[in-house]
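Worked Example 4.2. Consider the chain below.
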Amino acid sequence: MELRGKAVIVTGASRGLGAALAEALGRAGARLVLVSRDREALGSVVERIRAGGGEAHAVVADVSAPEAAARVAGTSGALVGPADVVIHNAGALGPVPLAPLADTSDADFEQALATNVLGPFRLTRALVGSMALRGRGTVVLVSSDAASTPYAGWGAYGVSKAALEHLGRIWDVELSASGVRFLTVDPGEMDTRMHREAVPEADPATLTRPEQAAERVVTLLREAA
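Applying the procedure from the previous section yields the following structure tokens:
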């Protein structure tokens, strides 16, 4: 895929992998709509992209909120036109320190599902009709090996990421003839705030930099057929 000029939405874009993806896509010439709850941090990412000659717009929203999808989709369409790519990167880890499922509250479990599954479902649903009508579009789901490997303490996160992956598989089957593609990526263990909160004892030198993971995702988008 040629990324220059493409309308791309990235959620969770204020830090970590999301910010790195936004900057890499900005360098590639994509027209970006960046979504996050953190207005100040998101504004800094937008400023860096614009300073480098790229196009980026901020939409402050919590993807777990039921009303967010329609607002993000509508605002994105007004700013950059119909979405060509949406990257569902926003994620909720659940309670930290990590706790067994038996000690996880309803509220924490529900928040992980709302952010990691319902948010991507709602936003995809808001965008995919236009993609299918145009016969093209790419939806990227950022997952984790916790979706397939049962790590103690990662229950809410792991369950939600497993559901996210299966959600993508079902969308892919249902829309296989439409020209809309669904890609699931596992960026691996990265040196991010989320990882530090989950595993504070981890050696950062052993972890992937978000910028490295972002470049792999951009390469995947470029090579996707």
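The two ends are 7 Å apart (CA to CA). The beta strands are 7-11, 31-36, 55-60, 85-88, 137-142, 180-185. Compare this with Example 4.1 before moving on.
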